[in-house]
Amino acid sequence: MQFGPVPTESAEGCILAHSLQLAGGRIPKGTILTPDHIEAIEKGGIENVTVCRLEPGDVLEDDAASAVAQALDTPHTRQSEATTGRVNIYSTENGLFIADRTTVDSLNRIDPGITLATIADHSAVTAGAMVATVKIIPLAVASSKVEAAAQLVRGSTAFSFRPYRPHRVVLIATALPTLKPSVMDRTARLLAQRLEPSGSSVHREERVAHDTGEVAAALVDVTASGEEQPDLIVIFGASAVADPDDVIPAAIRASGGRVEQVGMPVDPGNLLVLGAIGDIPVIGAPGCARSPKENGFDWILNRILAGERPRSFDITGMGVGGLLMEIPERPRPRDAVQATEGEAVTVGALLLAAGQARRMGEGGPHKLLASFGGVPLVRRSAETLLAAGLRPVVAVTGHRHEKIEATLAGVDVKTVFNPDYASGMASSLVTGLSSHGVSSCEGVLVMLADMPAVSVTHISRMVEAFRNAGGQAVVRAVHDGKRGNPIILPHATFEAVRKLQGDVGARSIVENCGLPTIDIEIGRAAHIDVDTPEAVVAAGGILGD
Predict the structure, then answer these.
(1) Distance of CA 287 to CAs 259, 305, 538, Å?
(2) Is there a domain that residue 326 lies in?
(3) DSSP string, 354-421
């Protein structure tokens, strides 16, 4: 390939190396110049243009990227169409991404213009997450180099993907007088949230004294032969492990099991214990696993959920990258999750209906059950989302959830109960976004269930703007420039949202995600909610129970 400036008059058939902005429009980089292009460039007064001239055996960037990407052919992934020399690769299931550094490095050393970049080895990903990208740097490369790269990945595995499989999990929690039951309750809920992406669940929980004999007896009981045997046992100790002969490792051995490793070079997560009873893996969780923030427990748990059986050698090799720094959450907008050609950008919805409605008065009527046009508000909100074409719609319930869920009966909405609703909005966002259907969408519209003035038209305009941006922008409703609700969050922000805590929304994530924000004016509807009986009546509602 020959690269450089040439007289405009002789550039026909060449590839434009740099975009040109002309009075009649823009000619993008990579365009093969036609006589019409040449005429437009000359009219613009440009005498020379920088171009590429193909030589025999050269392959255009998009064709080269497609050839390398197609040779990868990794199960449980999908590929975007090639554009500007790039093919992005996305997971189609929740699971564990496995990279082969040797193969990836070898491909990248064939030619500087042919590159393959992946996320980190053994990264946990959700369906729709970007896991790798093939990028051709120049506008064309030699076909011999393309074929060498394709042949390399055909004969070996540059990366693979291991979908999670559902596990029946037993939780054993030990107690001391100083450990509050509320802490143990929250620990169980957090474990359930960690298991949800794999379709796993805690099917049994045992709480015993922090004593070797008590824990050993519980282990023997839960592993007794029968159809109810667990696939995994997780032990949360009331006190941190201080020695290989401390309560949890000693109990594993006393129950007839083996201890694989005590301690790991991942911080937070140093005090993890890994063992097994027969074929059943046992994790002694470190204290940091009581927090939703990533720690060494997540690394081991995800490997087991994906079907791996980590050993001492694996754990002792986790030190490089094992220092998990406490840094502000900043999702990476890696081209988000783009729809393939011919597909619409998928948008689901979260309907937040878990609040305690304290301003309605103690024991007073529930605002979401107030009637608007003869329809309970929560049902009206759900039907608005459905009428706007959003799928799936997930309603997160909490306070008086039985009544709310009964009111939604017969509507094509999935309801998810948030047992931690009293802690604030963050827990409802996390609960809703962990739903399988929503987590695989390119974007999710988050709507408060107590906003009766938000219409199908408002939502449709927001969704249209999101799709026009290719799913790579935050879209929020505003009135007179003041932000309101609803909001559409792109897939690139999902991981950061899942780590929120307390009575906060996604404002900090929106401000720090690095993606553009599109404001859609929907009038006063962006700010009208009904938090008090007076507000319900003023908005045209009739109070119910």
Answers:
(1) 19, 20, 50
(2) no
(3) ----GGG-TT---GGGSEETTEEHHHHHHHHHHHTT-SSEEEEEBTBHHHHHHHTTTSS-EEEE-TTG
User: What's the rounded Cα separation, in Å, for the pair 455 and 457?
Assistant: 5
Q: Do strands 159-163 and 95-99 pair parallel, antiparallel, or not at all (unpaired)? A: antiparallel
- Domain membership of residue 84 (yes or no) is yes
Q: Are 302 and 278 in contact (CB under 8 A)?
A: no
Whether residue 501 is predicted with pLDDT greater than 50 in this model: the reply is: yes
Residue 325: predicted pLDDT = 62
- Cβ atoms within 10 A of the Cβ of 302, count? 22
Full residue range of the structural domain in which residue 277 is found: 168-317
Alpha-carbon span 377 to 374, nearest angstrom: 9
Q: Which residues pair with residue 397 across a beta bridge?
A: 353, 417
Chain-centroid distance of CA 221 in Å reads 37
Q: Please report which confidence band the pLDDT of residue 327 belongs to, taking 50, 70 and 90 as the band edges.
A: very low
pLDDT surpasses 70 at 358:
no
Residues 195 and 201: beta-carbon distance below 8 Å: yes
Q: What is the pLDDT of residue 118?
A: 95
C-alpha 222: how far from its chain's center?
33
Distance separating alpha carbons of residues 346 and 463, to the nearest angstrom = 9
- Residue 87 exposed, middle or buried by CB count within 10 Å (0-12, 13-18, 19+): buried
User: What DSSP state is assigned to residue 442?
Assistant: S
* Token pair 């008059």 in the structure block, residue: 9
Report which of 389, 394, 398 is spatially closest to residue 368, judged by C-alpha positions: 398
- Between CA 451 and CA 541 the distance in angstroms is 11
| Strand 474-479 relative to strand 159-163, pairing | unpaired
Q: What is the pLDDT of residue 332?
A: 40
CA 219 to chain centre: 34
Q: Which residues contact 327 (CB under 8 A, 6 or more apart)?
A: none
Q: Residue 439 has which token pair?
A: 């987590």
Q: Average pLDDT, whole number, for the chain?
A: 89
* Non-local CB neighbours of 212 within 8 Å, separated by 6+ positions: 247, 250, 251, 254
Phi, psi for 156 (deg, rounded to 5): -150, 180
Residue 367 counted as domain residue: yes
pLDDT tens-digit map of 272-309: 999 999 999 999 999 989 888 889 999 999 999 999 99
Phi, psi for 18 (deg, rounded to 5): -135, 140
Contact indicator for 172, 236 with CB cutoff of 8 Å: yes
Same-domain pairing of 386 and 520: yes
Residue 349: what are its φ and ψ, rounded to 5°? -145, 140
Looking at the structure, tell me whether residues 308 and 178 fall in a common domain: yes
Q: Do 353 and 479 sit in the same domain of this protein?
A: yes
For tokens 């099991």, the residue is: 257
The CATH number of whichever domain residue 10 belongs to comes to: 3.90.105.10
Of 168, 78, 68, the C-alpha closest to 128 is: 78
Q: What is the pLDDT of residues 206-235, one digit of tens each?
A: 999 999 999 999 999 999 866 678 999 999
User: What is the rounded distance in angstroms from the CA atom of residue 408 to the CA atom of residue 384?
Assistant: 13
